[in-house]
Amino acid sequence: MAGKSKHPEQFRRDAVALVLSGRGTREVARELGVHYATLQSWVTKERQVRQVGRGGSVVDDRDAEVRELRKRVAELETEEEILRKAAAYFAKEMGR
Fold first, then answer.
1. What b/e sequence results for 50-89 when a residue is b if at least 16 CB atoms lie within 10 Å of its CB, and e otherwise?
2. Which residues of 31-94 form beta strands (DSSP E)?
3. Mind listing the pLDDT tens digit for each residue in 44-88?
């Protein structure tokens, strides 16, 4: 059973991003003080997370998350507008 990693999640994501941007795995591992095999396993896991979507395009889970968050922001903005109008209406009614 694997133990808790001594490297924070953000550190791992940043290290993987460096490798995926074209830098060598060994070079990045050496610079960050991470064992080569450890970094390679992080990169492998990230590549497995990325899936080929319909039409052959690469779909990244983070892109899906961004789309979901943008959708939620739009919903919240709509709700805010409705509440603002309701508050103005009731304020007007109370003033009569």
1. eeeeeeeeeeeeeeeeeeeeeeeeeeeeeeeeeeeeeeee
2. 51-52, 58-59
3. 888 877 655 544 455 666 777 888 899 999 999 999 999 999 999
Q: Which two tokens stand for residue 63?
A: 């892109």
Tell me how far apart the alpha carbons of residues 28 and 36 are, in angstroms, rounded to a whole number.
8
Burial of 6 (0-12, 13-18, 19+ CB in 10 A): exposed
Q: Take residue 42 and report the two structure tokens written for it.
A: 């992080």
How many angstroms separate the Cα of 31 from the Cα of each of 39, 67, 68? 12, 34, 35
Half-sphere exposure of 72 (CA within 13 A, CB side): 6
pTM value > 0.85: no
Q: What are the backbone angles phi and psi of residue 52, rounded to the nearest 5°?
A: -85, 120
